[in-house]
Amino acid sequence: MLDVDFVRSQFPAFSEQSLERQAFFENAGGSYTSAQVIDRLTRFYRERKVQPYAPYRASELGGAEMDEARARLAALMGVETDEVSFGPSTTQNTYVLAQAFRQWMDPGDAIIVTNQDHEANSGPWRRLAEDGIEIREWKIDPETGHLDPEKLMELLDDRVRLVCFPHCSNVVGEINPVAKITALAHAAGAFVCVDGVSYAPHGLPDVGGMGADIYLFSAYKTYGPHQGIMVIRRNIGTMLPNQGHYFNGDSLYKRFTPAGPDHAQVAASAGMVDYIEALAAHHGIMGETPVATGAAVHDLMRDHEEKLLQPLLDYAASKNSVRLIGPTDAAKRAPTVALVANAPGEALAAQLASHGVMAGGGDFYANRALEGMNVDTVHGVLRVSFVHYTSQQEVQKLISALDAVL
Fold it and tell me: What is the CATH number that goes with domain 4-32+300-401?
């Protein structure tokens, strides 16, 4: 079982007096940062805030730490080191990717998008219609928000070049079968771009094992600094046109980052792996390979989250005045729970704050998903989201607070 006390000791936020007695349930908007990341970021700014890769000690150390972050994250996710790119955000990374596909594709080619996605993995692709690219929408079930792979089969043909979908939605929460969907797309000759922003905080996935061509997530939602992290596999990464400086065209991890990297935040991302390995060591589940270690920690996190999530789902499903978005089975979803109630989501979140619960309300840039489920985006949803550092006592506090405001 997850040692929650040990976990919380790794996050300075839980020792912060200003946050004392505040239960944090807006983790889908950004998680607390682990001590390992904060320490690396602070050290970089104090000791290594120079241009990296120059022939003097501070510069060499800074560059080495940036390289370390890329190499260790790649190893954990089962991909090659240069298949990991850093950018200012996942939204920006996706936009740059879309420009590369815009140049690579021909009019009449097709891209499949969903209406379950956050706008970051939908809007940039839809804009390619301006250049004659056909956009096909894989629609969710309007009652449940479910994405049915059988419906995808109806959209696939030899004109489809790319299928874009989320590992899980930031409002529906259901975990989509990435490996299965990827296999369907590949069989039709298409690549896949997976938005992992809402899934990665619950355990970094084995991207290599899933077979995804592109996998994007946000470090600041995964206990790290404010960076967008993108895995782009070599076959598609070298096929697409270079979006960076022309002289960086031969470097896979520089091809899709036209702006210079944020040296300190890239370096601090190694702290994410430090934290995962600290969890593994404390629980005695260090694997023989980084992928095995990542998988063991992933399962440890998910087991804890599922145990805490099921009572919350049962509570929400029992309320006649509330519509619970997504599955009622904790094993099928992430602990990101959107509720439609009589009051606007933002107003409910404000009421929860007076009960010591930090949550969010609104549309969460998932307008298409909410509209697809006939939810008024102005009214929005109340979203309560947690990760593995959340305690059972905090979930009980949340349920009591919900009882008071719903």
Answer: 3.90.1150.10
